[in-house]
Amino acid sequence: VWCGWTKTNARERSGQHVRPLKFFGLTNVKQLGLCAPERMKRFRRHGQESQRERIKQELYGFNKTVEHGFPHQPSALGFSPGLQLLAIGTRSGAIKLYGGPGVEFMGLHDENAAVTQVHFLPHQVELVTLLDDNSLHMWTLRAHHGVSELLEIGRFTLTGPPGAPPSVTRVTAVLAHSSGDLLLLGTEGGHVFIVKVPGFRELEERNISLEKVTNSVPEEYGGRRSLEHVESLQENPVNPRQVLIGYGRGLMVIWDLDSQSAVKHIPATQQLESVWWTEDGGHVLSSHSDGSYCRWKVAGDDPQSEQEKSEVPYGHFPCKAISKIIQLPTEQGPPFLFLSGGMPRASYGDRHCISVIHSKTHVALDFTSRIIDFFVIRDGPDHTGEPSALVVLVEEELVVIDLQTEGWPVIQTPYLVPLHCSAITCSHHVSAIPLKLWERVLSAGTLQNTHYSKKPWPMTGGQNLAPDPPQRDLLLTGHEDGTVRFWDASGVCLYPMYKLSTAGVFLTDSDPNDNLNQGTEGEWPPFRKVGCFDPYSDDPRLGIQKIHLCKYSGYLTVAGTAGQILVLELNDEAAEQTVEATVADLLQGQEGFRWKGHTRLEVREEPVTFPPGFQPFALVQCQPPAVVTALTLHSEWKLVTFGTSHGFGLYDYQQKNNVLVRCTLNPSDQLAMEGPLSRVKSIKKSLRQSFRRIRRSRVSLRKHHVNNAAKQANARLEAELAEMELAPVQRKIEPRSPDDSFTGLVRTLYFADTFLSDSSHNTPSLWAGTNGGSVFAYQLRLPPVERRGEDPVTAHPAKEIQLMHRAPVVGILVLDGHGSPLPEPLEVAHDLARSPDMQGSHSLLVISEEQFKVFTLPKVSSKMKLKLTAIDGSRVRRVGVAWFGSTRTDDYGESGLTVLTNQGDLHVVSLPGVKLQVQYPCIRREDVSGIASCVFTKHGQGFYLISPSEFERFSLSARCVVEPRSLVEVSSETPSTTQPRALPDGASVERSSARRVMEHALLNDESEYLRNHQTTLTELNICASDPCGD
User: Fold this and answer.
1) Locate the Lethal giant larvae homologue domain: which residues (predicted)?
2) What are phi and psi of 466, to 5 degrees?
3) pLDDT band at residue 873, thresholds of 50, 70 and 90?
4) Which of 223, 356, 454, 886 is deepest in the core (most CB within 10 A)?
5) DSSP character at residue 835
6) What confidence score (pLDDT) does residue 721 get?
């Protein structure tokens, strides 16, 4: 008996011949009890499957490799002068180490608690972290396969006597002793515990109890009043046997560790904030809660110190506390004094300041956010020379001040750059930048950085063993204040290259002559603004929404929130010019629509001087001024196409006129007229639409029930089988109503030179996809090159496709006769890509949120499709085209689609066969902003925001992986050996795989996730794969 399948399978849809299956004694394939995929597997060749799986392993591999930007919510700062390493702890329990550019390490505590203190052990490659759950953790940098890894090797929590209150062991101060094997822990109860490291063994016989200290306090000191908690612990710089214990009430005691007795008392009476022991050991400086600091002489045999000096730097009115004080000597002249806080409470209590006083120079450095901590780097091989740099960690950035150059300028940071100086609104990645364009952008950026110090980056710890990047890559970020920032994204460090500002084209409330960096002459306190974090935008309409850069021609187009599209070209000289606006009326006179959103930006009528770099020469203003939702540039044809929620247009930037304007509004799209900044949204309408959707789904369910009993039984059986195979979120694809809001919103625009009218003549074309599942194709007629400046470009409607399920179209791609994506504009002219095959028939790939569908050209008949939503209920959110090179051989690779879904999963879909190749979980489905911010590269990598200030970099390519490879060793000049210590008994070694899980720590409810996955993470190898090729 011969039988055929009742449903057309994938091979039938692709036009391939399928031999019928012959079963003896069976009248229906379903009698086999197999679902469709298993029917196919029964007749597949095992050799073909294993061969394909091997190729997949050579092409694809998922890794989260490095985090770019500034750590979210930093809470602690540490520095090792010997290792030249900086450590930052965060509120989510992350610990990050940085040395020279490219030297980076990341770790994550199992406990979901904030890191409150970080301390490096002297002369070792170990550091200790204190969390706000009162646990201490030991970390080490251990060499593994030639690179160092950050490992947690021990944890410890102080335990008090039975029945003792928690305050007895609540750690408030930590001192890493210069011997390298002792930790002194001051507590809230006033006790000091001494712990031997790395084994975290408490030396009970050497502990300094509060009773011992209280008994040694003279009677005249306030009747031995309560000393409160231990605020500070300091070691005597010239006698390591002595430590200074500073208590919250103000009393300071110098304690001898050998004799276990108090040597001297410092009877301060103000609430203590910070203590500093001068380098010669002769004086102690204390800062207090009333904005004062005192200088105490501690040299000599007198058991009680005398106050030499007490000063309130910004008196006479009440001042805020000085939270930290440091004094460092200079070879010639007076010392440097650094004070954090102390501002007059009434007038400047909201300022975040560090005062630097040296000789007659007094500056109050005014930072942009709350100060976390600071330290000073010193010159010399033993780091005891002249102060060279002040390093300040504030809540939103890291600022480094050059103390050896006149004016104390800021040193530009090669990493930890605050990406969110102004909130990021979009991003765009460009691979393989030509050297000429790279140098011109770099030159323009250098001219913007003349106010920075010329000194090199002062932190040089570790060796960067990562190979040189094989190509130059740019990441462009658009920001809320109308700026576009260019970043060198070639390697581990995301380095700032150039900043473009578009605000100068428009009239805004800001005054360009404002200079916030300098205080008024004679002002007191002598403020000086430092830092670049500035989250406030002069006008939200300036926000950049779309960016497109042509790396071959140097043309750039950016589009904004108020419907403005700027076309810019790279100029090495400053130029003065007027930018005239061309209005594109997307409503085309349609009646019944009234725009309720923001107004358009007013363009400056007078000439504007633009600095060297990208300079605007053309401006298109959409009307209504809605957010630009799609933007594409074709520099070879000198055309820009743009789309909003109302329609799309085509602009000729050589002749500076509109070629095409098309309205895509549906009569029911009144919601599209309200704009993103309008608050007039109709709740009644939203409820009405929700009820309509419910009603439609119920009607469709009723229709399904009008079947005979046999069909119902079969359907029930198939549904049960499908439910076993598919995810819980599986659902049927139902056609969306044309009455849904924003169906006219343009999601994607695409230029292609393909066969649109017949199969023998290829012509330039424009394709547009909308939120309602519509695709519009226009045939473009370009005049000859010699007449390009005079004759107009024309556009004629050619095709229109309406997807049956009406899902939003998120991508359009034309494949040539070989099934390869068409090359970028000018790519073939620069001999960087082969010419597309124009002999065979082309195909059109339409990517909607729910499926990938291939059509033949020019007939536009359905060829094949891949349903995504029907499989696992996910929807396409981001899509890109990438080339995946093989790790086995350099001359083999495949093109594929990189896809990110609303579930946070990454897929690779093959081209031209449109088959699902691999799937990896990447982003939490709850992280909507992270999914929306994702951008793919041409070589299988990607970036997405894990916080407002951090990009996570990932790779889907087995060959192309960019990740830190660093080695840190103890200097041979230090007393310790370079060999790592033996592990303490019972300590667990956990490979730091924070690159793969760091973003999970950003939510406070992720501790369970980390606990469940810790076993898996310890087995992961973070060694780098081979670098990618061009």
Assistant:
1) 311-409
2) -70, 140
3) confident
4) 356
5) P
6) 39
What's the angle, vertex CA 247, arms to CA 243 and CA 252, rounded to 5? 50
| Contact status, residue 7 vs residue 18, Cβ threshold 8 Å | no
Letter for the amino acid at 54?
Answer: R
The DSSP code for 764 is E
Residues sharing a CB contact under 8 Å with residue 133, sequence separation 6 or more, in sequence order: 111, 113
- DSSP state, residue 200: T
CA distance 390 to 367: 13
| Token pair of 332 as six digits | 């010639």
End-to-end CA distance of the chain: 56
Interatomic CA distance for residues 80 and 102, integer angstroms: 17
Residue-wise DSSP of 482-530:
SEEEEEE-SSSS-EEEEEEE-GGGB--S--TT--TTSPPTT-SS-EEE-
Token readout for 651 is 């602009």
Percent of the chain with pLDDT strictly greater than 70 = 80
Q: Rg of the Cα trace of the chain? A: 33
Q: Across all residues in the chain, what is the average pLDDT?
A: 85
CA distance 729 to 731: 6
pLDDT exceeds 80 at position 290: yes
How are beta strands 613-623 and 581-585 bridged, if at all? parallel
pTM of the model: 0.84
- Annotate 603-667 with DSSP letters as a single string: BP-S-EEE-SEEEEEEEEEEES-PPP-EEEEETTTTEEEEE-SSEEEEEETTTTEEEEEEE---T
Question: Contact, 108 vs 994, CB < 8 A?
Answer: yes
Rounded distance between C-alpha atoms, residue 927 and residue 759, angstroms: 46
DSSP letters for 140-172 = EEEEETTEEEEEEEEEEE---STT--GGGT-EE
Q: How many of the other CB atoms lie within 10 Å of CB of 439?
A: 12
Do residues 308 and 289 lie in contact, with contact meaning Cβ atoms separated by under 8 Å? no
As a residue count, the chain comes to 1030
